[in-house]
Amino acid sequence: MRKMIIGIVSLLAVLVAADPAAAATGGWVPAPSSPWEVPAGARCDFPVRAEPVVDEVRTRVFERYPDGSTKREAYVGDLVLKVTNGASGASVEVDLSGSAMVEYADGGTLVTDSVWYVVGPALFGFREGGGNRPRGIYVFDGLYTIAFDATSYKTVTMYHGTERELCAELSS
Length: 172
Hints:
This protein is mainly β. It has one domain. The protein contains two helices and twelve strands; from the N terminus they run αββββββββββββα. The chain has helices at residues 2-16, 166-171; strands spanning 29-30, 36-38, 48-55, 58-64, 70-76, 79-85, 91-95, 99-109, 112-119, 122-126, 136-148, 154-165. Strands 1, 4, 5, 8, 9, 10, 11 and 12 form an eight-stranded antiparallel β-sheet that branches. The protein has a four-stranded antiparallel β-sheet with strand order 2-3-6-7. The protein is globular.
């Protein structure tokens, strides 16, 4: 496990370093987050809305498949979301300014047939039976991976860090 942790941290440190050749190969480009909503019962017992307050996330493709589709890309930058309970109006701002390397299986997407290697905070929602966490909206922070299968089932493997479930926090 120690080698895995060192490998992930080293890989992400390289990603955030300046790369003068990046401009010639596509470089870092903005990866804006859109506001989103989920109905009551989908993730929490109440409807949830999230919108970016700060969004300076950038992405860069590091490797492609022969057909041009993305095989490996990274995400870095500041992201703060305001997450709101649509029934009560209660809200919380969450800092999601982590870094991630995403590896896609051939034909994979961000949420199918992919693995995220993450350092720092990120938010993921879980539907009922949709992963190895109960239904909810979670902020994971630390060193972890999230693997998505072909049906978007999520498997979180936490190496070191914390998790915060926002539905419970927003319901009080």
